[in-house]
Amino acid sequence: MELQINCMQSLYRKMEMSQRKNKGYFSIMSNETETSLNSLAQEKVQRGFSIHDAYSIMKSSGTKFSVGNLATVSENLDKRVDTERYSIESTSEIAGYWQIYDKTLNQTFVLNPDTTTLQTDTNTNKNYIVFQNVFGEPENVMYADNELVGALKQFLNTDSIPTTSLNENYVIDINKFTGIESLKVKGNEGAGSWNLICNQEQKEKLQELANLYKEKYPNLVKTDGMAMGFADAEVAGQAVRTENGIMLIACNGLNYMDNVDPSKSWHIMYSINDTDMYKKIMNAMTEGYIIGKDIENVSKWEKYFEEKELSYERILSDEELELLQMNKI
């Protein structure tokens, strides 16, 4: 274990509360927020090879990015298909892209047909539209009911759409409070999730969860936007409610915020490259190592990390730093 006592920003400052409307990554922010979590794609860009570069190279070579992608059954599409719930059309925002508008949920799903496939979960027979980036990572995911599949067939002017089994690297969890499915990438669950709201009932349950956050933690959750951000994060498996506060689980750390006594808040950081940490943290709670009020106790987490020989850094609060300095004098 390493003890971090310099002026490094806390995990809370590094997390931004907003659900990217057409992406599945969730993070949390407050008025202090300055930066957001880095995605794997961003890391690749920083290494000098951008998504645009990869797309341009592959597009110019005529490569179809995904086996059975929607582009293989499409022609020059210049039409709009409307059903009771959905509308599908080419988007003028990005050449070659399509957009699906869900009238019930008031959400728009934008996709590149070259890298988008219709995937079926063989365990449930549910269909999902999966838009991947050029690195093969999920960029956007949408649940596809029978009406949407039918609308796609009409849009593509075909009787059948090629489907593949759900990628074996994906796992779908169901949030107990809302019933909303959340798709994650195995082995990298902490990096982000795609919440798949299917109907109006689930949307209302999500709002109910957001209201709960605002009512239970008024000192932490001051706006409707923050409340919805925390609710989204919980569905994604990245926020845990406790008796007195909220714990956030990110790809690079844990952050507990106490609603009553800010001095009881704490921050622990670990390497963003340790992609198993999310699973180990969740196991600590689901397997009974740390439950109930102990979730709020940083010493319980430190003990757990040390017993499991996990590398981490404790980020001291301003109050702890001041006390440490006083003890040195």
UniProtKB/TrEMBL annotation:
Protein name: Uncharacterized protein
